[in-house]
Amino acid sequence: MDRNKPLVAFCFTAIVLSACAEGEGPEASPDGLYEVSVHTRTQGSCDGEGQDVEGAPGHFRLLETDFGTDRILTWHECESVDTCDDSSTAMFDYENGEWVRQWSSTVGVNDAFCSVETITGTLEQTDDGIRVEFRTASGTLEIPCEDGIAETHADELSCDNIEVYEGILL
Fold first, then answer.
1. What is the reported pLDDT for 23?
2. What is the pLDDT of residue 61?
3. Which of 38, 99, 111, 168 could link 92 by a cystine bridge, Cβ 3.0 to 4.6 Å?
4. Residue 154 per-residue DSSP state
5. Per-residue confidence at 68, pLDDT binned at 50, 70, 90?
6. Any idea what DSSP says for residue 47?
7. Which of the pair, 67 or 21, is modelled with greater confidence?
8. Torsion of Cα atoms, 146 then 150 then 156 then 157, to 10°
9. Per the structure, how many domains does the chain have?
10. Angle at CA 160, nearest 5°, toward 159 and 164?
11. 107-116 pLDDT, tens per residue?
12. How many Å apart are CA 111 and CA 109, to the nearest integer?
């Protein structure tokens, strides 16, 4: 019997696990309830600072769910700490080490035009909470609609507004 086999197996396992731990593992989950500290929105363009949004819900909840190997984060607006909307208004996917939102809608007109609207979102964890940015863009393209047109022609769309939320984790 080789007395070194268990030691070799232990060392091999430790090396493999430490190599995996140093890879692109998931960041800490932003799952939680947040109090809105900043909520601004630009109107008609994406230039300059947005104006404060009045009368919007004062809290939001982010809920993380695992779907097999996919991580999904849903956004829920909350009137108060105790009352959150059960339906989510946005979903983020965890891709390449970042939380991102991609949504688009297209409407074709006689295979000659394609009306496109997109909403992209980013989520960035801060020292005391989180910053969420939604960017809405739209336009009419003089080509037929096809799958992926919002992504392949994103530079031809006009930015309509940017909405920013900053929240403090409760």
1. 35
2. 93
3. 99
4. G
5. confident
6. -
7. 67
8. 130
9. 1
10. 95
11. 987 788 999 9
12. 6
Structure tokens at 43: 């109107």
The answer as to whether 130 is a domain residue is yes
CA gyration radius, the chain: 22
pLDDT in tens, 79-97: 888 888 777 788 999 888 8
CB 121 within 8 A of CB 113: no
Give the DSSP letter of residue 112.
T
Do the domain assignments include residue 14?
no
C-alpha distances in Å from residue 131, one per residue of 30, 32, 38, 61, 73: 11, 13, 9, 13, 14
- Identify the residue whose tokens are 């849903």: 74
Q: Is 101 within the bounds of a domain? A: yes
- The residue count for the chain: 170
Q: How many other C-beta atoms lie within 10 A of the C-beta of residue 61? A: 19
